[in-house]
Amino acid sequence: MASHGEELTGFDTIGNATLIFYDRGRPVLATDPWIDGCPYFGSWSMSHEIPVAQREAILGADHIWFSHGHPDHINWDSLELLRQKHLLIPNHFGGRILKDLRSQGFNADPMADREWVALSDSIRVMCIANHFQDAILLADVNGRLVANFNDSSDHGWGRTVRKIIAEYETSFLLNLMGRGDADMINFMSEDGQRIVPPAMQRPPVGKWLCDLMEWFGAKYFIPFSAMHRYHRADSAWANDCVTQMSDYEIGFDEKKRGSLLPAFIRYNCTTDQWTEINPNVLPVEIVPPEQFGDHWSDPLEAADQRLLTKYFRSFEHLSTFLDFVTFRVGGRDHVVELAPRKYRRGITFEVPRHSLMKAVEYEIFDDLLIGNFMKTTLHGSWGAGKLYPDFTPYITKYGDNGRAKTREELRAYFQHYRNRALIESMLHELLQLARHHVINRVPQNSPFFASAKGVFRALRRTL
Predict the structure, then answer these.
(1) Strand 187-188 and strand 171-176: pairing?
(2) What's the structural domain count of the chain?
(3) What whole-number distance in Å separates Cα of residue 179 and Cα of residue 67?
(4) Measured at the alpha carbon of residue 416, what is the angle toward residues 414 and 418, in degrees to the nearest 5?
(5) Which pLDDT does position 321 carry in this prediction?
(6) Quick one: pLDDT at residue 2?
(7) CATH number for the domain that contains residue 197
(8) Fewest C-beta in 10 Å: which of 33, 200, 229, 402?
(9) In this structure, are strands 220-224 and 228-230 parallel, antiparallel, or unpaired?
(10) Mean of the per-residue pLDDT values for the chain?
C-alpha cells in the first residue's frame, strides 16, 4: 500500500526504537531517538541508517519522549542535538532521569501517569510507567492507536492497556521481541567455556508474537527496539544472537491473530495506507575495545577496590541471597564479600577496568551487563532466571535508577508503584510469584512445565 502527500497525519517507524508522529505534515513527537554514537561502552551500533527525511523530522519535532534510561533509548551522544526540544519523561519514583536532564540545562517535564495529554489537534498520548523504571506510550493519532511498549513487558499495566486497545478498530503494537540478546547473555561455565545462549538456537520469534498479539488484541505488530549490532571485538561474538528481520516470520500465523508489518514504515492515519521505508543496512565495523578506553590488562587500583566494595554492599537485598561478587580485572581477583555463608553462591565478573569503573561511578551497571563483553560466571545454585529476579533488578532498576537500595527504601519504592494501580499490581505480583516458583523448581522440558504455562496464560486472561 502507498501513503502519499506532504500533509501526513500519521507516523514513521525508524532507527532502533523511534516513532515520529506527524500532524498535517508537522513532526509533533519523536520517541527514543538514538541518532549517533555507539552505546553500551561502544558495544552496540545501529543496524540501519536513519534516512535524511526522518533525521530532519526527529530534529524538527516539538517534543521528544524517552521511555527509559538505557543508552539505545536515551542516548547521550544524540542528546546534544535535541537541546532545544521539550523533553517528556515518565514520572518515576526517584526521578533520576528528569533530575539529570534538568541539571544539564534541558527543558524536561514529567508526564502524568495514565492520563491522556493532547500534543496537537490530531495527536494525544498517554504514558504508563512501571516499577522496572521503564514506561510505555499509547498514542491516539486521528483515531488510530499506536502502543509503543519499547523494552517493557507487562508489569501490571496489561489489563488497562488491553481495554484501551479494544476501543480502537485500528491498533499497532510495537515491542522488543527478539531472540533475547538485549540482555546479559555472556555466561561462562566455571571451567571458562561460554555457555551457548538460547538466542543462538533461533527460537521461534513469530510464535511469541502470536501469543503477545492474542493477549493484547492489537491489529498489527511492527518489529521494534531490536535494531542493533555488536561493534566491539570482544562482543562481536553476540552478532550470531541478534534478531534478523526474517526471524519475526518464524512461527507467525496471521490466521491466529493480527498482521505483521515491516519494521520501517510510514503509516497514514487518514487513509490507512502505508509505504515501506527502506533504510540502508549499515555495515558492521568491528573495532578494538581500546578505542573506548578498555584495556583488558589494566588492573584495579586500591581506590577502585574500595569503590566497588562500597557500591555493591549498598544494595541490601544482595546479602539475602548472595555470598560474594568477584571482579576479575587485569587477571587479578577482587572479592566483595556480602554475607558470611561459606561462599556457597556467588558471581564472577571478568571485565576491563575502564568500563567497570565508569559503570559504578555513574551508576549504570545495566549498561555493562547488556554490552555483553563482560564475562559472567555463576557459582552455586541459581534458578532458571539466573540474574533475575534477585540480582539485576535490585541493582540496575530499583537501585541505580530508582534510588532505592535499603530495605526501607525498597518498601517505599514498591508501595509507590502499587498505589498507582493497586488491584492490577497485586494480581500481577501473585501471578509472577507463581510463575517464578514454577520456573525455578520444575524442569522446563517436563510435561508439567508445559501445562503450567498454559494455566498461567489462562489465568492472565481471566484476572
Answers:
(1) unpaired
(2) 3
(3) 21
(4) 70
(5) 93
(6) 38
(7) 3.60.15.10
(8) 200
(9) unpaired
(10) 92
Residue 246's CB is within 10 A of a number of other CB atoms, namely: 10
Q: Is the pLDDT of residue 175 over 50?
A: yes
Q: Which of 285, 310, 337 is the last residue of a domain?
A: 285
Residue 269 near residue 140 (C-beta atoms within 8 A)? no
pLDDT tens-digit series, residues 421-440: 888 877 777 776 766 666 55
Residues 81 and 161 in one domain: yes
pTM: 0.92
Cβ of 275: how many Cβ atoms within 10 Å? 14
Residue 445, classified by CB atoms within 10 Å of its CB into exposed (0-12), middle (13-18) or buried (19+), is: exposed
Residue 2 lies in a domain: no
Q: Say how far apart CA 281 and CA 299 lie, in whole Å.
A: 38
Do residues 259 and 402 both lie within one domain?
A: no
> In which residue are the cell numbers 562481536 written?
236
Residue of 397, 390, 345, 352 whose CA lies nearest to 374: 352
Answer whether the bond into residue 389 is a cis peptide, omega within 30°: yes
Show the domain range for 84: 10-285
Taking the CA of residue 62 as centre, how many other CA atoms within 13 Å lie in the half-sphere pointing to its CB? 11
Contact 65, 29 (CB under 8 A): yes
